[in-house]
Amino acid sequence: MKLEEIKHPELKNHINMIYMHGENQNQKAIDKTEAEIKEYIQNKEFIISVEDEKPLKIPYANDGEYLVPIFTDEKEYLIAMDYFSLNDMSENNEYIIEKLDYFKKLKEDPNFLGYIVNIARVSYIINSTLL
Length: 131
What we know:
Blueprint: H1 9-23, H2 27-41, E1 45-51, E2 54-55, E3 58-59, E4 66-71, H3 74-86, E5 95-99, E6 112-117, E7 124-127
Parallel strand pairs: 4-6
Antiparallel strand pairs: 1-2, 1-4, 1-5, 3-4, 6-7
Helix pairs in contact: 1-2
């Protein structure tokens, strides 16, 4: 599959709905949307940032915890590359297109908090409970 073929408007819509439900403090709707996200991501391929064939790790807090960035489409990926360079992060231009279970050992790592979707825009963390 090619970079330009990856498109996930449904996931982007789910993420927007999570934020809307959060503003309305509607936990029942958030739970329902998270269940829809969990089902949606099971067999979909995403753009995953890698370095030396390993997932790129974005530090989170000071405890060694981290997130792995993924992207819903080519546009989000390109925006993130600009974001990385503007924030003095190492320029990363490597990616793979795979399902989220490609790096199976990530789920076993207690420092892995999940995947961060579209880091440069309205992002969302797919935590390990959704994987």
